[in-house]
């Protein structure tokens, strides 16, 4: 039995790939699957700085079929620049993908407007990424969960993991609010709670939780390629037609035990509306109908930890450092390989080991200015 | 100890347009009374009310089910403001007591300190009129937002001419803009009595009143032309231009929820009702209403799978039971339907079926969906999120922004190494390319 602690996209995808290979899996989730940051994010599937990028791009077109439920995945991204500085930055991040053989096309304002009628005279143009894409986070999270169950895996919702019992250098059971579950291997993919679960095993997993937020407008008629953003915003037009965008200041927080704090919004929602209105000046009349918050975690360098521990040797630790949704098809497959064979045979994860933080000072959060403000 | 992360919310100010000892939201009887008491006691007091509404909200049935039975007078804000002051003479007395009164001003946001919200210097309320949004600070807040209509998804309910009791009352008595003549009323309690009396007083014909749940259909093609129902073995019909659903109202707990108030289910007090806490008080109908036969009426309306529950997103009772994805996906739900989910949660069902996810912000279907999900136990309250009224981008964009916030804006966290190849060691000093920073680049 492989027990996966955390029913977010990373854990669910890991469970999916393991179950698909015929391994018995149990996912332990303290609330509802995909309920935290996994189900509420920008839905982006474009991460060229990740060693899992190529696999991310390979897998997304197959996910609906693999999971048996629609993920709303759509290919390609459009990046709009409102000035030359923005365009320059966009090309810098584009180069990461084109260096790997992916294609990007420069668009002038008129060409961009052909694709995105909302773009105004303030745009200088942009880039069409003929790679990447976007999907619906909640639908995808749920699709993983149902796929796991269809393949014979077990998902325990409303069940909190309390600890991992070890014996002779191996994890033998996961202690939960519903009793112990015996295990042959464990994956800790519990988002910001990962650190607290790994600590009793003698491992410090440095991470700082933070709150981030997004806004959503009423639906508009769908444009040909909804994965359009820029101006310091990430997001997309959903298949239904809503504009869902985030960005701007995050708030570093502390956790309060095993609960995840209520992800409230702040007046930053108005700043998001302002920047969205700058990006699409023709849409000033469009109504914002909702906002979201979510709690994510970041490691000190903002990069994932995907590592199988040496002791206990059958425990894998996974944090995607605030960028987990889009990569999840590939991450889950990589983690399944870490569980089964100790290494990933399709991506170089050598820089994503926990040991890179071995010399990290204890007060690293303070040194980085990442302390939570007092309540 | 380094300076706080400049791309975080730490150190960012939220400029206020006013700071009040006491803010009261909702200028009905209870709200006016609370505001007068506060001002008389020496508190600097602001009383806001969203009426006269942004005309766009009438069409969205926010906050009440208006059913398009109003004339163009509602477009004239200053005339509507006069009518509101005439309809509520105590407003004048409140002003004389020193209350600052802001009509046509909606409370769309409430922001208080909490575990995940530590940056606020003090509790804030987000307000907006038709043109702009702004923030005010408060020491005490009284929520007197009243109750809104419970919509019964009987066939034909989306036709122009189908109203809620609160929508009918507002259009008739507050705005003086009601355009119907012949009215059928659904409901057997005090709410329906009130509708009946107000209609008679206005010289309207009340052609039918259904006091108990029955299979019924609202008839009409372009708008309401009649009502048909089953009375024992007999099918009854009447000709009418308006159907008023006056079975029940529900406390408007959106603002209390946003502010983190404890909200519990109490069927005898109108459903989910909020508890006062700390500096936040609830007065009037928002604190609880009287028992009504809502459950039986909703059961009758939801009996058929083809009952259209969420009109914004085109979700039927059958779609909900089957947990069917929205039609544009042309896909089936899980074989087990709702049972595939475990304990039912309205927010989760919303995200999967889109019921309650549309521009009316779930006001027209919230109670019906909740009833449908509560067969085996009361489902938890579906969350409310800002903005509590759908605000145009341009209105929210007009909120005054701290220049420091803008100057330090990042697309995502501003951690430079996050955006560079993860198969190479993280560089000590790198340029942030993860998103656009306004003005000077503060993250290197």
UniProtKB/TrEMBL annotation, chain A:
The UniProt record lists the keyword Oxidoreductase: yes
Domain Rhodanese residues, every copy: 6-44
Transferase is among the record's keywords: no
InterPro entries assigned: FAD-dep_OxRdtase, FAD/NAD-bd_sf, Rhodanese-like_dom
Alphabetized UniProt keyword annotations: Oxidoreductase
GO molecular function: oxidoreductase activity
Protein name: FAD-binding oxidoreductase
PROSITE patterns: RHODANESE_3 (PS50206)
Domain of life according to the entry: Bacteria
UniProt-listed Pfam families: DAO
GO cellular component: cytoplasm
